[in-house]
Amino acid sequence: MNIANLSLFRYTEPLFFAFTDKTIMASLQRTWVNLEMLSDDISALEHDVIDTAAHIKLLHSVLEELKIAESFVALETEASFQRSLSGSLFENIFERKRMVGVYIKLVGYVITAWEATNKAKAIISENFDSSADKRLELLQVKAIRAKSQLKTVASAMGKEDYAKFVQTLGLSAKEWQWDTLRARF
């Protein structure tokens, strides 16, 4: 093996990693921008559209972006993570890297509870047949379990951080408010 080729390989290797770090940071920045736009879209929803299929569709998009962010965040240090959030809407929301994962759980629980509750309501009002009792029971248990898990995670994060979550995602219905969540499940 030629020593000149070996030196060239050693020289280009750090450049490759530096490029990769910049690519990851740029992708993470795009993800923050996408999340900010989704949050703005949720904030722009009319009051009568909150907690409807349109709102939940936006929450599904938020969940997907959070999952993308989590894959990039795993490669970052706490310091580089905080730098990536500088000037972002999420700068005061994601105070630590692990908060991205917490938000993934919370959004997932909200979506699960909302969808199970709506399916149960549809069974009661439209499709009540001989097998409806079992389906209804399963959906109600699923919704209760999701809300219970939401309560557990929300309690662990605290009232202030949970309020940020609710505000950012437009969860203004009474069932998502701190006092209601803490009192019920």
The share of residues in extended strands comes to under 5%
- Counted by DSSP, the helix tally is 7
Based on secondary structure, the structural category is mainly alpha
What is the total domain count?
1
**What is the ordering of alpha helices and beta strands?**
HHHHHHH
- Give the tally of β-strands: 0
Q: Uncertain segments of ≥5 residues (pLDDT<50)?
A: 1-19
Question: What is the global morphology?
Answer: elongated
Describe the structure.
The protein is mainly alpha-helical and 185 residues long. It has one domain (3-184). It is 76% helix and 0% strand. The chain has 7 helices and no strands. Helix 2 (53-73) runs antiparallel to helix 4 (98-125).
Secondary structure topology:
Layout: H1 3-43, H2 53-73, H3 78-85, H4 98-125, H5 132-157, H6 159-168, H7 178-184
Helix pairs in contact: 1-2, 2-4, 4-5
Q: How would you summarize this macromolecular structure in one to three sentences?
A:
With 185 residues, this protein is mainly alpha-helical. It is built from seven helices and no strands.
